[in-house]
Design a protein that fits this description.
Elements lengths: L1 H28 L15 H24 L3 H28 L16 H7 L2 H31 L3 H29 L5
Helix pairs in contact: 1-3, 1-5, 2-3, 2-6, 5-6
């Protein structure tokens, strides 16, 4: 047990380092653009990201089902898949945003700015999109370390602590996974 607690402490430090690195990358990706060859077309990535988020949501629901059925091994496997999908999403998402200009909701002419006419055309739907997007981004940033900590608790045999954390981490993670594809579908008409 003492060995597991020491491992948990080490993994917690790693979780904070990973969280810090991810947040730094996400903060930089809007400011730094890495040029790529003109013939590279990365337009397939936003729907890929939405698909990964949707799959993560489905797998999280499957993991929830398995744990309610007391099938711990299937639950563990499902969580490994959900984490794998989330890591793949994160790597692809950051790479995309480091190389591609941001798409703005309502930017019908794809010039990277919103005119008064474009703002008028989208009306209050832009406000709803921004509320959804900002809640998605804020909760994704907030929940990342807690997903890792919840996983660490289970991995190191701290089952009761894992359960207590998972009760609130799961719905927030699920919300983030579900709102990602919704935000994509709302933004889809404005991709170049």
């Amino acid at each position: 047990m003492e060995r597991n607690l020491q491992l948990a402490k080490q993994l917690n430090v790693a979780a904070w380092i990973i969280t810090g690195a991810v947040l730094a990358l996400v903060g930089l990706m809007r400011q730094v653009k890495i040029p790529i060859p003109d013939e590279w077309d990365l337009s397939f990535l936003p729907p890929f990201h939405a698909t990964l988020n949707a799959l993560t949501a489905v797998v999280l629901l499957i993991a929830f089902y398995f744990i309610k059925q007391k099938n711990v091994r299937a639950h563990q496997r499902s969580i490994y898949v959900a984490i794998g999908l989330s890591v793949l999403f994160l790597l692809s998402y950051v790479a995309y945003h480091f190389t591609t200009p941001e798409t703005l909701y309502g930017d019908l002419n794809h010039d990277g700015s919103l005119s008064a006419e474009e703002l008028a055309a989208v009306g209050t739907s832009r406000v709803w999109y921004l509320i959804l997007l900002l809640s998605h981004i804020a909760l994704a940033a907030l929940i990342l370390p807690f997903i890792l900590f919840t996983f660490i608790r289970a991995y190191t045999g701290q089952v009761e602590k894992h359960r207590r954390m998972a009760r609130w981490v799961f719905p927030v993670w699920l919300y983030v996974a579900v709102t990602g594809p919704i935000a994509y579908f709302m933004l889809m008409p404005y991709y170049p």
